Amino acid sequence: MTTQTPSPSAPTPGLPARQAALRMLDAVMRRGESLDVAQHAACQGIDERSDRALAMAIAGEVLRHLPGLDLMIDSMTRLPLADDAKARMVLRIMLAQTLVLETPPHATIATALPLLQGGPRKLAHGVFGSLMRAGVTLPAPELPPATAHRWRAAWGDAMVEAAAAALGTPPPLDLALADAAATDPLAAELGGISLMPGHVRLPRGGAVELIPGFEEGGWWVQDISASLPARLLGPSRGAHVLDLCAAPGGKTMQLAASGWNVTALDNSEKRLRRLRQNLKRTGLEAQTVTANLLEWRPDALADAVLLDAPCSATGIFRRHPDVLYRIAPRHIEERAEQQAVLLECASNWVKPGGLLVYAVCSLEPEEGEAVVDQFLAADSRFEIDPVRADELPEGVTPDAQGRVRTLPGMLVDAGGLDGFFMARLRCKG
Ligand SMILES: C[S@@+](CC[C@H](N)C(=O)[O-])C[C@H]1O[C@@H](n2cnc3c(N)ncnc32)[C@H](O)[C@@H]1O
């Protein structure tokens, strides 16, 4: 048997995944890109799916645990490393690898230290080695101070504690079913639970394509919170609904499955392609329109309009912890301005007596409650159509005005849910 020694120019095995993780983190923290977008460029040239998944896992875990990792690093340096120092980021990667992903320390050193080629490798090696010898363990996850401060002011201490706990808990995988009657059999088959008809929750994510029934298309992945806005329109017998800002189509599929005649509009052709693929897989139907909502006119007023407006997406921080580091107050302000304009536009396409549902997957009241309050104060054509408790899963209740706000801390024993805001408005007859 011969042993092959790697040629001196061969890359260290495992290094490309760490390089990609470093590039992704740089894109999120410096350029404000989302991890999903950053992943594409950062993983160029990495062929193995498992390496791309590892890069994503490392970057995600760094973001999930960042304040705690920084505390450890700072405990071992005489002077704190600059926030954006490469050595700090590499140390974060090393600690996340070993403490979260359970890579043995020697393998972490071999695969991550080369990221500091020509830089302070000795320092990083020393800090990491000292922390390992001290037997450090991972502290409980924490929100970044700016987010914690903002959410504490909006929702109180208990919400901030619940959000930090949610950050450290792998979120479950929710399936939305085309046929609500199939709920119990599917839950039994997949070993899941159901919180509402048409909903099945599996304990955690994984390769969705490998879940039995994926090819048959009887369900799609959708957090229970994200399924609530379309549920507020109820079933229909072919009435016309405009699903505005529709892609990739979770709500389009719900509406089509509930009997609505759906026109699904989005300004992103790329995202609409995914919507069409989703419709094809599930065998559901909708007309699709690629257009900027602000420049489009429908042929006729609709019986109902659903506006799932673009937002900061801070409500999905459990699955996308990068939002915690990308979203600043100025982004929230910009989004809120855009949402007000989109809501005003969408309201013009509702028939008298028809319904308008406004929704955002944001935990910022400026993008939810405030947008609807402002709209109603300026537009006397609409009034709130209060949501009833029996339209929601047990443990989620409408607010005093009949709007719905889902927060970390709700349904915790069942695995929690994403943060959403939604309101159902009626166009006065
Ligand atoms: C929150 S996502 C929609 C998610 C979708 N409703 C679902 O359930 O799968 C917001 C969408 O708004 C679209 N969008 C943003 N600005 C738009 C505009 N001016 N006109 C049309 N679509 C827009 C984005 O491309 C994005 O797909």
UniProtKB/TrEMBL annotation:
Key words of the record: Methyltransferase, RNA-binding, S-adenosyl-L-methionine, Transferase
SUPFAM superfamilies documented for this protein: NusB-like, S-adenosyl-L-methionine-dependent methyltransferases
Gene Ontology terms describing biological process: methylation
Residues annotated as catalytic: C361 (nucleophile)
GO MF term set: methyltransferase activity
Pfam families given in the database record: Methyltr_RsmB-F, NusB
InterPro entries: MeTrfase_RsmB-F_NOP2_cat, MeTrfase_RsmB-F_NOP2_dom, NusB-like_sf, NusB_RsmB_TIM44, RCMT, SAM-dependent_MTases_sf
Chain sites annotated for binding S-adenosyl-L-methionine: C245, A246, A247, P248, G249, G250, K251, D266, D308
Ranges for domain SAM-dependent MTase RsmB/NOP-type: 148-428
Superkingdom, taxonomy of origin: Bacteria
Family designation: Belongs to the class I-like SAM-binding methyltransferase superfamily. RsmB/NOP family.
Name this polypeptide is given: rRNA methyltransferase
Organism: Blastomonas aquatica
